[in-house]
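Q: Structure tokens for this one, please.
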Amino acid sequence: MPALRPKDYFMTDTTAALARFDAAIALARGADQAYAALQALVQETVGAKLFTVMEVDLQAGVARRAYTSDAVNYPGSGTKPVVYDAWFDTMQNKREYFVANTIEDIAKVLFDHELINALGCQSIVNMPVVIGDVFVGTVNMLDVAWHFTPERVEMIREVISVPAKLAVVLARG
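A: Here is the predicted structure, written as tokens:
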């Protein structure tokens, strides 16, 4: 048997994780189960100490935390107004990932950076979720400083993006 190249191992490893996501999402009923399946996929592939999903209603101008892996520090709560700032422009208009690998970079855009740091998280990826050409939310993954290497961000693009859309569609009913 020929030796596996790194890319071959990567594909084998993520294929199994995706199969587990597929089985979980097929049984999911409602937002919590759909997002829990997505969180498990993230944990298996790129890892995240903190995982949240924000849903955005652009017509109403509000956002809400629809799912959280830490209900004590980041509870799912009521809505908050959408803030039309540079971060929002990155998500909504540019439809690009926001990646920061230090708490200093996170502090430039997130008001709750002190809590994030206190939880042991100093890096973040915010992935925009776009369905039917409409920005509907973000999947947020946080971990230790420099966790989100270019390779992990690429894995998010290749492995997490489509399952995230599926989870959001299922969660929205």
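A few notes: The chain has one domain: 6-172. Residues 1-12 have pLDDT under 50 and may be disordered.
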